[in-house]
Amino acid sequence: MLLRSAPPVEMPKMPRGQMVRVKLGCMAGLGVLYGAFVWHLAHEKIAPRPNPAARVAIRFIKLPMVIPPAPAPIEPELVQPAPVQFPPPKLVLRHAGHRR
Question: Where does the chain cross the membrane (predicted)?
Answer without folding.
Answer: 20-42
